[in-house]
Design goal:
Elements (H helix, E strand, L loop, with lengths): L2 E13 L3 H6 L6 E13 L3 E5 L6 H8 L7 E6 L2 E2 L5 H8 L2 E4 L13 H11 L7 H11 L16 H13 L5 E5 L7 H18 L2 E6 L2 H7 L2 E6 L2 E7 H6 L4 H8 L40 H5 L4 E3 L7 E3 L20
Parallel strand pairs: 3-8, 3-9, 6-7, 7-8
Antiparallel strand pairs: 1-2, 1-4, 4-5, 9-10, 10-12, 11-12
Helix pairs in contact: 4-5, 4-6, 6-7
The protein binds iron/sulfur cluster (SF4).
The site of iron/sulfur cluster (SF4) has 13 residues, from loops.
């Protein structure tokens, strides 16, 4: 099956200061590279997870795909159509087929609009004013399991879970082929998180929507995604099927992230790997492998040479960028019973 969305070598750059100020402050360049050559594809009905710490560039990738941010280079193809070559008006019909769920469930909804106005706003934005707004509101509320009388409520009258359902309903308004969900469970209680994820999974099943889930919550990734990409300082450091990466991470950064993920089994003891220090600033990227300042396996070459991508010997679709990828061996991350060594 051909890809619904195909992103090739995407690069996004933000200007931080004028050229003169940059020179005066000793910065070589007055901009930062927020996304550095990211490539991936999503097929219809598939779910891809983008994982990484804050500032890794995940949300910038999403904002660039839906046209809220311009790339400096790279290709974004939707059903074979290269979007970056189109004018804003030519791009609009394609953007209509993608919807974004923003991070903060309540804060992302305009406080002055009723639920009905929020749900039908996408029709107005896209010039579909002939739609029956009452009927559409009822349809969308039904799809996300909310009563019809919620149409008259305002965002402050909604719980976090209800606001998230309204966010999902709004994303569904234009019957998209792709939904980009930025931290879909952020700010929600654990029980409500499960409800929202089950709702998304059910809708995806029924409607065949592709999902791009951006999160640092690895339980969400494990529960929801077919494939995952791990981002560090604007680059993918490991990409593969969720099963393969959870089963055998090959990049030390992925290994550390997975080791910090709480296991459902309360008796399990994890070999948690502490990451040294903070994520470096993208304004001052480390040389060579950019993870070397925090990597427990770093050797001399790591600070000198950028690692080229390599693929797993058993799975060509599982790739990683590391000079010394972790061995294909039983995981040191597997939970062990208390008292066991
Ligand atoms: Fe660690 Fe070196 Fe691999 Fe980078 S290239 S992740 S520093 S071992």
């Amino acid at each position: 099956m051909s890809a619904l969305l195909n992103v090739q070598d995407l690069r996004v750059r933000f200007r931080t200061m004028g050229a003169l100020t940059a020179r005066a402050t000793g910065m070589k360049v007055p901009f930062i590279d927020a996304v550095c050559g990211v490539s991936f594809e999503i097929r219809r009905g598939e779910t891809l997870g983008l994982v990484g710490e804050s500032g890794s560039g995940k949300s910038t990738v999403a904002r660039t795909i839906i046209g809220l941010q311009s790339p400096v280079s790279g290709r974004i193809c939707f059903e074979g159509q290269e979007l970056t070559e189109l004018s804003a008006s030519q791009r609009k019909p394609y953007l209509r087929r993608m919807a974004m769920m923003f991070q903060d469930p309540v804060g992302s909804l305009s406080p002055r609009l009723t639920v009905q106005a929020l749900l039908t706003e996408p029709f107005r934005i896209h010039g579909l004013s002939d739609r029956d707004t009452d009927a559409e509101t009822k349809r969308l509320l039904r799809m996300v399991g909310l009563p019809a009388d919620f149409a008259r409520r305002y965002p402050h009258q909604l719980s976090g879970g209800q606001a998230r359902r309204v966010g999902v309903a709004r994303a569904l308004a234009l019957s998209p082929d792709l939904i980009i969900a930025d931290e879909p469970t952020a700010g929600l209680d654990v029980s409500v998180q499960g409800e929202v994820l089950n709702l998304l999974a059910r809708l995806q099943d029924e409607l065949g929507i592709a999902l791009l889930i951006i999160t640092h919550n690895l339980n969400v990734v494990r529960h929801m995604t077919d494939r995952m990409a791990i981002m560090y300082l604007g680059r993918f450091v490991e990409v593969g099927s969720t099963e393969a990466i959870f089963g055998q991470p090959r990049h030390p950064y992925t290994q550390a992230l997975l080791s910090a993920n709480p296991e459902p089994d309360p008796d399990a003891v994890l070999n948690r790997i502490e990451l040294k220090g903070e994520v470096p600033s993208v304004m001052r990227r480390p040389s060579g492998c950019e993870f070397h300042t925090r990597c427990r396996y770093a050797q001399d070459i790591c600070s000198r040479a950028f690692p080229e991508p390599s693929a797993d010997e058993m799975d060509a679709k599982h790739s990683f960028k590391c000079h010394f990828p972790l061995e294909r061996s039983p995981l040191p991350l597997k939970p062990v019973a208390p008292g066991e060594c």
